[in-house]
Amino acid sequence: MVDINKYLESQLALAKLRSECKSKKDGVSLKSRTAADHISKRQVKKFAKVSQKEKVDQKSKLPQLELNKSDLKTEPAVSASIAENSDDDEDYVPSEDEDETIHLCPLKVSSRAKESVQKIIDDGDTSFYNERIKTWRHNLAMACAGDNKVEPLSADIRYILNGNEDPEENHELQNGYLVPNYIWKQLYKFQRTGVKWLWELHQVQSGGLLGDEMGLGKTIQIIAFLTGLSKTNSGSWDGLGPSIIVAPATVIYQWVSHFHYWCPHLRVAVLHHTGSHSGNHNKLVRDIYASHGILLLTYAGIVKYHKEIMARKWHYLILDEGHKIRNPDTQVSKLIKKIQTPHKLIITGSPLQNSLQELWSLFDFMKPGLLGTYNTFMIHFAQPITQGGYANATEMQEATALEIAKALKNIITPYMLRRSKTEVQDHIKLPEKNEQVLFCALTVEQKDLYLGYLMGSTVRSILDKENKYGDPLRARVLVALTTLRKICNHPDLYLYEAQEDCEQVDADKFGHWKRSGKMSVVNSLLKIWQKQGHRALIFTQSRAMLCILEQYLQNQKYKYLKMDGSVSVGQRQNLIRTFNEKPEYLVFLATTRVGGLGVNLTGADRVIIYDPDWNPATDDQAKERAWRIGQARNVTVYRLLSAGTIEEKIYQRQIFKHFLSNKILLDPNQKNVLSTSTLQGLFSLEEPNFEGDTETASLFKHTKINVSNSKNTKDKTHSRNDLHLKKLEAMKKMAKAISKKISQDSVEYKNNVEVKDPRIEYKRKQDILRDPPVIETPEINLVDDKETNVPFEHVLSELDIINMHIKKDYEETLIKNVLKNTNPEEKEIDDDIEPSDTSHININESSKVVTSSYNDNSKQVCNKNINNIKKGHKRKHTSLMDEKVENLVTVKKVKKKVHKSEIQSGSDDDYVLSKLFAKAAVKNALQHDVVVGLAEKEKRHRMKEEAEKKAKDAVRALKFSST
Ligand SMILES: Nc1ncnc2c1ncn2[C@@H]1O[C@H](COP(=O)(O)OP(=O)(O)OP(=O)(O)O)[C@@H](O)[C@H]1O
To answer: I need a surface site. Which of 47, 520, 596, 761 has the fewest CB within 10 A?
Structure first.
């Protein structure tokens, strides 16, 4: 006889298995798998194209970058050929082009960034230049005559208005070099040293690198020096001859405005299609050359106008952000090195970014031969120093690296002047800067998509040891990493790519901030900062992400300005000026590449680096836009990283590069920390360890920020917050226990009372087991929207938090159920809960009242809440819950009163962090400065002698190679 129960059981088990397989293959959802399949198919097509192109390139003998797995173990560097072919991925690919570009965003974001701003006009147009000079002379004469209402102001006019008499007065340095007093007196002491150093280099006709940290006034030092030359009637040009300054597109007009202010008599023209010159650009070059003026070009401009430029011999060639020629193989590097001039200068705050090869390229421009031939330098210097930097280096390798790094430092020191902000702090008195790395949790959707893609065919093909998928491995790695980074930023960046062309984008849902862990953090930060009166810069690598952020800012009605490649080069400086001058703008939103280099954005005192770059210098440059001369308020920088993902690996890689760079530029004894990463490691999703730390946080444990223990913290806020957290945890545990009990009770109860049919009963049991009551983690958001006069911090008791922020009224239902289904024998519900911080709920069947071991106050609140629930009273916020507005505080109308003490940056930051931790949006925070500046002086004497010998050999080899 067939046992009907057994049959049903097996059928149910089968059905369950099928449905599980269908919905969650390999632990990811169907949606995730479908998206990964779509994307992988497209990517395969792309690889085929790249592979084809590489074959063609090989045939035509174009410069090739070698591809092998060991390369990728250390860095997934990018080849130009790949960049050209991966249109969709160009956001994350280094590029020189900062000119107009298209948006890759499906949203139509109305651009409020296009403010009507006045354009800076260069001296390309001769009549305009003559007019400007006339006005300046007139104003100067008026100022000398005592009129103090002249406009526009230049440095010399201001000097007169400040009570000085003679604008022509000069300060004389050695060998008759003259610098006008109106500039000299304005320079900080270290800047004067810079001008003297430039003059020394000039006299021996040597090139040099001015490498002061970002924001210390390199531009002013160069302008002061050139002004001095123009006043010193000596040399082959009898003063200053025609000169070229090459600069990133975003800052060429910044140069114009600085020249007009500091050195109004010089003619400064922009050779770019946005410049004021009309007619033939050859004529402009001729005019500027004849008038001993300054010609400003972008790096792309060098390629465009190289024939006109190379046809002449120039007095000075200055490369602003000269690290742009760090790759010796690019066309622009090669062309720049061919321009005829005896005086070459590089200005950059990031002279060494990725590898020592870059240093070689910079010196090859400004001091050819100093570092020998490329091959000799790489073998005798770059390789041993890099090797010694890895965590798995032998003691011998470390000692050798140390000595060679010292030798290299000695060689380059005379031609490189670099001062850090710390060194000159006594002069410039910069406010404090606090820099933190926030490890943000992925949302459930992001995690699902991330894992789905990791299991997809693109990643499988990369990790396949036999590599049966064929070349190009590098292209596949790059594309896969880029895809993962998109998921980390926002799921829609990935899903949009995965969908079919004909599918419509739902503009309401697309890019919603709640679907991205990092955007949720941005949302909290901006709310808090707006209340605290801070203003923020937000940098992201990708234009599509910029678009999503812009849409978010518009939805939230924040005032912002936006700058990316689509903003005309001629308008960028004005946009920056508008932001600095108008405090009503809360946010300046920019792509790291366009807005992160060379510009002054001191209007902001908060910076968010939304996504990390492989190259730490890119992020460093961006964050320094706010923390520079001219900044009066303390600056806080947050780098956002998705915990456990590729972004953590990028950050670790950044730290390694910092060590490498510091070894040469600062301290050869820099300690190494990281091992080389593997492909396997890049394509994984790390879970936090047993202590809840992310991989990086556990590596740099000593720099971890413990909000509750932080010294500067406002004690009250923290202890209160700590209390909330503990109680929240306790409440969560309690909720779990109650829920468990309810399901048990209800099963038992129904078993006894209702159920007759064994098949129905079995099915019901299975359903409960398959779909246990969902324990919603109470999501909290401590930031309020509405206003009352109740102090913000005092409003939220722990019960309020639970009651206010739970989803779908879970807790209310839960308590109601408990009241209905209490078990007299069950006293202590949860053994895990510690007596000190918990509410051991005793359930009294007869009275059906929940009592707890809270203090009286809490008890009252609790009872009041329960009574309210019983009476069917709902809090005001429930109406919003009904509208399914999750994550928003809707409870009480609260006005955040900003305490004076909170205005101090330190406590502000701690306050902000405590909020972020409380919401569990941030898993860990590290003090970035400490991580990077970790320079334990580990002297390794044992092998010193041998290492020194190797270093001497290296220097000898280098000298030999350059003769
Ligand atoms: N001596 C000075 N007097 C007044 N302002 C100064 C002085 N030196 C620098 N500044 C101001 O400091 C800011 C930073 O200067 P600048 O842009 O030249 O820095 P930088 O070193 O070139 O930075 P970056 O490497 O980021 O390009 C500018 O706003 C500049 O006007």
So the answer is: 761
